[in-house]
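Working notes for the structural subgroup meeting. M.R. asked for a predicted model of this chain before we commit to crystallization trials. I am recording the input and output together here so anyone reviewing the notebook later can reproduce the run.

Input as submitted:
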Amino acid sequence: MTGSTPGEALEEVVLCTVIGEIHARLLLDALATQGIPARAASAWPFDGDLLRVPAPLGSYASARMRIYVFRRDLARARQVWEDFEVTGVQTANEEAPPDDDH
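Returned structure, recorded in token form:
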């Protein structure tokens, strides 16, 4: 990073906000497997956006969780997050039971 100080590289920044503790834990695991330190924290205080976004099926809680990473890891973490979201959707679609439309 041009012009950044060592302290800025270790500054925590928000990678994303997810809904549900299970979603947050799975993403933290995916980041950890790539050697990217991360932590989750509640995204409260409550705001009206939660009313417009349904909790995913199977989520432990519908609480919004922010995922934090170090600024130095942000670019790699974004790639892991994007891959995680795409892989998760594909896996869910592959494991979906067949329709019972008779």
